[in-house]
Design a protein that fits this description.
The chain has 137 residues and is mostly helical. It has helices at residues 47-64, 68-81, 86-99, 102-115, 119-135, and strands at 2-6, 9-13. The protein contains five helices and two strands; from the N terminus they run ββααααα. A two-stranded antiparallel ribbon has the order 1-2.
Length: 137
């Protein structure tokens, strides 16, 4: 042991081996990393959306039977129930084409392109747009 005197104060310095701490073998308690989002069940359509789809089908049938006026009336009701159903706009465009109103057909075709995201339906919308252009000449 070494004793030092500095300014009237005595210090004892012991030479000891330094204490080395080792990490504990206990694993950390952090939660495991999630690599995928949890799978959620598809949302059930609202009663309004279901009613709108039923009206859409009725409107389509009116178009098949060459009755655009009734189709327009039914499809407008369908839009009031579910304004984001792009098929209603597509069929309204068809109905206005049948009646010869290219301006209305163009507007509803534009709305159909906004709300329809499925490739098959977008293809139909583009074909319809070409038909509208031909009829507007």
């Amino acid at each position: 042991m070494l004793i030092l005197c500095i300014g009237g104060l005595s210090f004892a310095v012991a030479s000891c081996a330094p204490v080395i701490s080792t990490p504990s073998p206990i694993p950390s308690q952090s939660p495991p990393l999630q690599t995928e989002e949890p799978v959620r069940a598809p949302e059930k359509p609202s009663p309004r959306a279901i009613a709108s789809l039923q009206l859409t089908e009725q409107g389509r049938l009116f178009l098949e039977s060459d009755n655009p006026d009734d189709a327009i009336r039914i499809l407008e009701r369908a839009i009031n129930l579910n304004p984001t159903n792009g098929r209603n706009y597509y069929y309204l465009s068809e109905a206005w084409l049948m009646k010869g109103d290219v301006s209305q057909a163009t507007e509803f075709n534009r709305l159909a392109a906004i709300y329809l995201e499925d490739d098959e339906w977008l293809y139909r919308v583009m074909q319809q747009r070409e038909l509208i252009k031909k009829r507007s000449r």
